[in-house]
Structures are given as structure tokens and as C-alpha cells.
Design goal:
The chain is mostly helical. The chain has a domain of about 160 residues: Butyryl-CoA Dehydrogenase, subunit A, domain 3. Helix content is about 65%, strand content about 0%. A hairpin with a 5-residue loop joins strand 2 and strand 3. About 40% of the residues are buried. The strands form 2 sheets. Strands 1-3-2 form a 3-stranded mixed sheet, covered by helices on one side. Helix 20 packs across helix 21 and helix 23 runs antiparallel to helix 24. The protein has 26 helices and 6 strands. The protein is globular and about 75 Å long.
Length: about 600
């Protein structure tokens, strides 16, 4: 039988209704470019405060307000360029515009570095006196105090300016990785289990082929995918090594005890909390996940469970598809408990083209939500009509709802909370959707399928990203001890982390070792482990909502509206959760264990 070949579309071939509407940011590239030019002029206006910033409270206030205005406009300009690149990173114009805005904003940022440098010349007592004298400075209170915490790690104003001017260079490892991943890396076509010749890309593998119920499709796709990764392993290792070297060197220059201490500082998280999150889940969750994979191996009739089989559906013959419109309907029904203000945001997001769901060449893989201040959030994902996509969509809508409210109720300087907290609102949406879907069915097979989808969320945050975090911690330890970071050493470290979690339940090959090449999160500081922190929090908040109803919802909405005005522990304490207590993490892991037990209980009667 002759194979048939399916090709992905170019960006200009996809239906406009499946794309986001960037005219809400700028009418076109010309208007965007004009605003970029005006930004330089506005940056020069702020520079007039240089040397006078700390003369009196009023001058400080005027400068901070001017900087806020500049940041709001700069954020929109940068967001537009990054979204254009995300929708089609193979487009040379998008590449050029992104590079142009990155370079220009780096120049302006260098010129404005004097603001923090001059503020750091003040004492904490003077800052307090300024705030008492000028009440409007209270808006900046947390930011000013957070800046004071950095005082002992801050270099001279001249050095800080030089470092700021090199922002584009510092971001080079991530830019090179992203550009290569979206534009240069190619994969061989492969023949799926139905004898159809398929094109391969990052998005297609991670959003479709890796989840295929067909063993031959999964394994053939994996072979094509990992072969493509292997061809770039040395380049990506060198790129990642530069990122790690940058962070380790910066930590030493600034006087931090370790790179971990430096990277945790902006998160308002202790090293103990960071290690608890990694160690408790890595050790306590492994037995539950190993049991789930043993069940999967048995149900699928596999002689061995390979790494590429981990995301295979446990029930291959029951994998319901869903249209985008139906998915939106289910999501809205599940979120009614959140009240009218939150629901209004969700409906706008789904009807006003805030979501880009198209499949096209050059599109960034995965999913994200970008929320520029002064506009509305934008969501990117690749819609494949698989039910799992419904949870991905509601996850990103959780981010959208969070930052829409934070943007509305806070100034731009107080919008963003710690990354330790930021995944909680998104994963809460997933938990609410899963609970709604389970309540809406009397079919045990559907109940098991939904429970497995919920376990998919925990797999994503408590396994995929948690293991990234454990690997990342190990890489920084290697770098600080002087060990060279090469493709071989990185792959060996990743394989050790995977083996420590999966034991002998999963067959791990050389392709599994290359998993460190797949995610951009390593270029974002200590970000991977925060996925598990957010889901730990949302697991406990979901239980509060289930037990208390509206009072718990009201507290949660207050937390979302608070933005970055409080530390992550303060935000979660307001919602009734204490993540400084290791038992909270253990409770969340125990809940995952209960889901695995549920699947084990339902499965035998279905045979």
C-alpha cells in the first residue's frame, strides 16, 4: 500500500478565525515601528531625572510614574514582536523585528539603569520616610523594599549600566535556542501505524504523535524526533552551557553564596522550600507513577514500556475527540463557580480572538499566555481536536483570568507575583474542569478517562517539569564544582534523574537522555520546579472550594487581584494554603496517589 503524505500549512494558509487578533495591540507593523521609535524619546525623558532622583520624595515619585508609563508601552511593543515570532518563527520579518526590539530595549534599559542604582543609595529608613512624606509612593512600597534586599548584591552604577547594556547578549542563549528550534531543526518524515507518511515537527510530536494510541505511530515518530534532536545535541549543549555559565558567573560577581540563592531571590522563596518541592515529590510520587505505568504496560499488552510510551493512552480505543467550540462550552460550564466577573473574562477570551489555535509551519511549540499591561491576554496553543487540549486551553485561560484581574486592579509595578505562585491559577482551572466532567458522566469508562486526563496534568507538572527541576539543580551543582557541561554530561545527568524516578519500570534509551533539549525553561532561571509549586497550591485550593464554596472562591479572587503586592506565601496563606509546611506537599502527592488508586479500581471491571 502506497503511503500518503500530509503537510502542515504555512501561516498565510490558516483560517483567520483560528488566529489571534494582534490589531488590539498595533494596527500593523508600521504602527508598531513608530511606537518603538517613540519609546526611545520617552526613555530620554526619564533620563532627565538622573542625578536628581533621590533629592526628595516628589521627584522619586515622578520618576517611578514616568518609568511605569514607559514600561507599559515597552511591554506592548515587545509583546507584539514576540507574538509575531511565536506565530511564525520561520518568517524573516518576524525574526528581524524581534531582534530589533530586543536590541533597542536593551539600549534603553541600560540608560534607565540609573533609577535602581540611585534608589539603592538610600537607606531603608530614608525609603520609609519618603513613603510617609509622599503617600502616593505607597504604590511602590513592596518594590522598593524588594530592591533594598538586593542592595548587598548590587554593583556600582557604572557596572550595572554596562550589564544592562548587554541584556541582548545575556539573552542570546535563549534566543539562539528558540530560533534554532523553530526555524532550523528539521526532522525526517515517518510512516505512521496506518501507513500514512507524516511530517514531523516539535509541535506535532509533543501535541499529537507522542499521545497517539497506535504503538507504531508513537515509536516511529519518536525515532524521527530523537534522530532530529541528536543532530543538534552538541550545539544545544554549548548554548545551554553558556546560559549556565552566565548565571553562575553573575552569582559570583554579585556575591551570592550560590547561583540557586541568586535565582530564588526574586521568587521570595527559601532554598529549603525549593528543595522540599523537588525532593518530596521526586521521592514520594515515584511509587504512585510507577504503579500507573505498570498498569499501562499491562493494559496495552506491551512486552516493555519504553520512554516513548509514557504518554500513550491507557485505553487506546477510548480517546474522544472534541471540537474547539464544544471544548469552550465545557470550560465555561466548569468555571461558573468562579462567579460573574471571572466568567466575563473567559467569554471574552474565547469569542474575541484572544486565542491562536492554528497549526502552521514555524509556530512555537507548547502553549503559553502573554498578558501585556494596558491590553488583554493572548493565548497560543496548537489545537488538534484531542480532548486533552481542553485542559491545556483552560490552563492558559487560568493565566489569562489571573493577569486580566491583576492588570485591572494593580499598577504595572505591582502586577506580577512570584513565579512560585504563577502556575496555581492555571492549574486550578484544570482541576475545576476535571471535577465538572466527572460529575457530568455516569459512564465508568469516561470517568476513568477523565481521571487519567487529570493525572496527565499532574504528570506534566509533577513529573515532566519536576524532573526538569531536579535535572536543573544537578546541572548547577555540576557547573559550580567545575564539571564541563557537554552533550554527554548533560545526557548522562538527565538519564540518571529519569532512572532515579522510574526505576526498572520504564526502558530508557539514548533518546530519553536527550529530553533536556526539548524545553526552553532552562533559560528562564529556576522556573521548571515552580510548576509543581503552583499545582501543589491549586490542589489544596480546589479542595477548599469544594468544601467551602463561595467563601473560598472569594478569597481566591482577592488573591488573583492582588497581583504582586504580596509574597507567594502571603498570597497562598490568604487562600488558606501553607506551602512552607512539607506536609502540604505530601498531601498533594497523596491526592495524586488516590487518583492512581481510582484508576486501578475502575480498570478491572471494564475488561
Amino acid at each position: 500500500m502506497e503511503a500518503t503524505k500530509r503537510k502542515t500549512k504555512s501561516r498565510d494558509q490558516v483560517h483567520v478565525g483560528e488566529t489571534w487578533d494582534l490589531t488590539d495591540l498595533f494596527q500593523d507593523d508600521t504602527h508598531w515601528n513608530n511606537e518603538l521609535k517613540r519609546l526611545e524619546e520617552e526613555g530620554q525623558e526619564i533620563s532627565r531625572f538622573k542625578g536628581h532622583l533621590i533629592e526628595n520624595p516628589k521627584t522619586l515619585l515622578l520618576c517611578l510614574q514616568a518609568r511605569d508609563s514607559f514600561i507599559e508601552k515597552a511591554y506592548k511593543v515587545a509583546t507584539y514582536a514576540s507574538l509575531k515570532l511565536a506565530e511564525d518563527g520561520s518568517n524573516p520579518k518576524n525574526q528581524g523585528n524581534y531582534a530589533k526590539v530586543s536590541n533597542k530595549l536593551a539600549e534603553i534599559q541600560a540608560e534607565l539603569s540609573f533609577v535602581d542604582s540611585e534608589i539603592l543609595q538610600l537607606s531603608t529608613e530614608t525609603i520609609e520616610a519618603f513613603i510617609q512624606s509622599e503617600p502616593h509612593l505607597a504604590t511602590y512600597k513592596k518594590g522598593l523594599y524588594d530592591l533594598m534586599k538586593q542592595k548587598e548584591y548590587t554593583l556600582s552604577p557604572e557596572t550595572e549600566k554596562v550589564l544592562a547594556s548587554l541584556t541582548a547578549v545575556h539573552n542570546a542563549p535563549y534566543s539562539i535556542y528558540s530560533q534554532s528550534k523553530s526555524s532550523d531543526m528539521t526532522f525526517e518524515d515517518f510512516v505512521d501505524g496506518d501507513n500514512n507518511e507524516q511530517s514531523m515537527s516539535f509541535a506535532l510530536y509533543e501535541d499529537q504523535f507522542e499521545l497517539s494510541p497506535n504503538k507504531d505511530t508513537r515509536r516511529n515518530a519518536y525515532h524521527s524526533f530523537t534522530k532530529g534532536l541528536q543532530a543538534y545535541q552538541n550545539t544545544y549543549a554549548a548554548t545551554y552551557a553558556q546560559e549556565v555559565t552566565k548565571q553562575v558567573t553573575t552569582a559570583k560577581i554579585r556575591g551570592y553564596e550560590s547561583v540557586t540563592q541568586m535565582l530564588l531571590a526574586p521568587q521570595d522563596v527559601t532554598v529549603e522550600m525549593y528543595n522540599n518541592q523537588l525532593d518530596i515529590i521526586y521521592n514520594n510520587l515515584a511509587p504512585h507513577m510507577q504503579r500507573l505505568m505498570k498498569l499501562k504496560k499491562e493494559e496495552l499488552g506491551l512486552d516493555e514500556l519504553k520512554f516513548c510510551d509514557l504518554k500513550a493512552p491507557l485505553d487506546p480505543d477510548f480517546n474522544p475527540e472534541v471540537s474547539y467550540d464544544k471544548a469552550c462550552e465545557m470550560i465555561l460550564e466548569s468555571l461558573e463557580v468562579m462567579g460573574p466577573e471571572y466568567m466575563a473574562i473567559m467569554k471574552k477570551a474565547l469569542t474575541k480572538r484572544w486565542v491562536d489555535r492554528a497549526q502552521n509551519d514555524g509556530k512555537m511549540t507548547g502553549a503559553f499566555c502573554s498578558s501585556p499591561y494596558g491590553s488583554h491576554p493572548y493565548i497560543l496553543l496548537t489545537w488538534t481536536n484531542m480532548m486533552r487540549g481542553t485542559l491545556i486551553l483552560t490552563h492558559e485561560l487560568g493565566h489569562a483570568g489571573h493577569f486580566y484581574l491583576a492588570n485591572k486592579y494593580q499598577s504595572i509595578s505591582n502586577v506580577r507575583p512570584s513565579t512560585y505562585f504563577v502556575e496555581a491559577p492555571s492549574t486550578l482551572n484544570e482541576l475545576l474542569l476535571a471535577d465538572h466532567l466527572i460529575k457530568s458522566t455516569n459512564d465508568p469508562r469516561m470517568e476513568r478517562w477523565i481521571t487519567l486526563q487529570l493525572l496527565g496534568t499532574y504528570y506534566h507538572n509533577f513529573v515532566t517539569h519536576l524532573l526538569e527541576g531536579v535535572f536543573q539543580r544537578r546541572v548547577y551543582q555540576m557547573a559550580e564544582s567545575g564539571e564541563a557541561l557537554t552533550a554527554e554530561s548533560l545526557s548522562n545527568a538527565k538519564l540518571e534523574v529519569l532512572k532515579g524516578f522510574w526505576g526498572d519500570v520504564v526502558t530508557l534509551d539514548d533518546g530519553a537522555a536527550l529530553t533536556w533539549m526539548r524545553q526552553p525553561h532552562y533559560y528562564m532561571g529556576l522556573y521548571p520546579y515552580t510548576y509543581s509549586a503552583g499545582l501543589t497550591a491549586s490542589t489544596l485550593v480546589a479542595q477548599n472550594i469544594k468544601n467551602e464554596g463561595k467563601p473560598a472562591v472569594d478569597k481566591w479572587l482577592e488573591v488573583l487581584k492582588a497581583g504582586g503586592t504580596k509574597t507567594p506565601l502571603e498570597l497562598l496563606t490568604h487562600a488558606g494554603v501553607d506551602l512552607s509546611n512539607p506536609d502540604s506537599i505530601k498531601d498533594a502527592v497523596d491526592y495524586v496517589g488516590s487518583l492512581v488508586h481510582k484508576v486501578e479500581r475502575i480498570t478491572p471491571p471494564l475488561k
